[in-house]
Amino acid sequence: MIKVILKGHDKYYGIADVVRLFFPSPVEDKENGIVYCKSAPDILIENELLPTGLAVSRTDSKEYFYDGTPEEAGREVKRSLYMALADITGMRPPWGCLTGIRPTLVALETGSAGALADRFLVRPDKARHAMKTGQAELKILERIDPDDINIYIGVPFCPSRCEYCSFVSSDISHHMGRLKDYKEHLIEEIGLIAPKIRRRIGTLYMGGGTPTVFDDGDFTDLIEAIYGELSIDDGCEVTIEAGRPDTITTAKLKAMADHGIKRICINPQTMNDTTLARLNRRHTAQDTVRAIEEARSFGFDVINSDIIAGLKYETADDFIDTAGKLIDLDLANITVHTLYKKRRASMSLEDVMANDEAGDVDKAVTTVYEMLEEAGYKPYYMYKQKDTGHGLENTGFEKGNTPCLYNVAMMTDARDVLSFGAGGMSKRVFDQLGTAKYRVERCSSSKDVLDYMMRTEEIARKKADFFGL
Ligand code: SF4
């Protein structure tokens, strides 16, 4: 078991974040002043913040110092612990001790890729990626008026549950009846709030789950209700995350196209049929190609596809092959996600040091970034997830100046988002990102579909109050 003893500070959260880069599921034990992880090899580290502002991590044989400013105490203790764990395990998580979900913000704060690499031990190629993407995000934000409101409509249902899914979504094979009810409640909630909205709608994104999971009639009803209730002008960016290609039908494409929708996400995750079947996704690579071709025939000119590096059952070459096939399809947007197979419940230090899986995925992601950039794509938004092993990032790429503005509004926490449906998070942004008074307030919906349906009116009222409507 690894045990980190905290001295002179109480940065449990940050310390656990750094331990998580190396070992799974660290526990913050505030009563005993430690962070530990039972499944890790035996390592004892004392992590101390001295009154002078010097942070030190001590093992029985070595001390790792970092001397920063007192205001940066949280970052200093993390950095000295990262140095110790990198040395002990031989692992070099690419984002260094930067564990937050928005590395582009920190990149812009530090001012240069070099400073980011230096202060947070971020690998230089990742530091450059964060700077480049952060600068793209800033430019895109200029296109999203802060006075506008951005809308999210959530459909947390899928035709089957992918083996790797950690999202709050329901497999409709067990909840078919609820899907219809859910649509009614979603329309009810939109109808309760829409007449009160006095702001222009800048972007609208319907995500999931799999929003095209509804049958043709219900999907068409939902699209019509959205356009009937909300004031969506021609300049509003509307994106439908259709998701699974097998749920995309001619009637659904027509329902969207009839309202002028031009942006759609068709997400294969992999173009390998064997993997798709083993992941329980119930569609083939050919279904993806068919859906893309049909969407194009309906005038969808910005098609995004999500792909995942590190899928179970796949090698790095499989992932590179998937990326190549989608690049050949000439999509406007490709989003690269990263996932790691779960590490074994318990590993020895030798196991940890011999585990090159993270390195393989990391190299494959770098190769795919190069392929995308060679094909004319540019990274335009990125984020990290806490539970992604070794903390690799997810990045959206676009070509031909087709970024999804909603993604940038949402991921940067720089614009207001009003979210409809179960599981969505609404947010209000006060003052501009990067200013001293900048802050974000959030209002959650119910994550539970049944609870959402029982309390639709109450939840709508709460959101209206939150936005002062
Ligand atoms: S499509 Fe996405 S949300 Fe649905 S089960 Fe698969 S991973 Fe989860």
Describe, in plain words, how this protein is organized in 3D.
By secondary structure, this protein is an alpha/beta fold. 40% of the residues lie in helices and 22% in strands. It has two domains: 2-90, Double Stranded RNA Binding Domain, CATH 3.30.160; 143-332 and 402-463, pyruvate-formate lyase- activating enzyme, CATH 3.80.30. It contains 16 helices and 19 strands. Helix 1 (12-22) runs parallel beside helix 2 and helix 11 (316-328) packs parallel to helix 13. The structure holds iron/sulfur cluster (SF4). Iron/sulfur cluster binds at residues 158, 161-162, 165, 167, 169, 208-210, 243-244.
List keywords for this structure.
about 475 residues; Double Stranded RNA Binding Domain; pyruvate-formate lyase- activating enzyme; 19 strands; binds iron/sulfur cluster
Brief summary of the model shown:
By secondary structure, the protein is α/β, with parallel strands linked by helices. Helix content is 40%, strand content 22%.
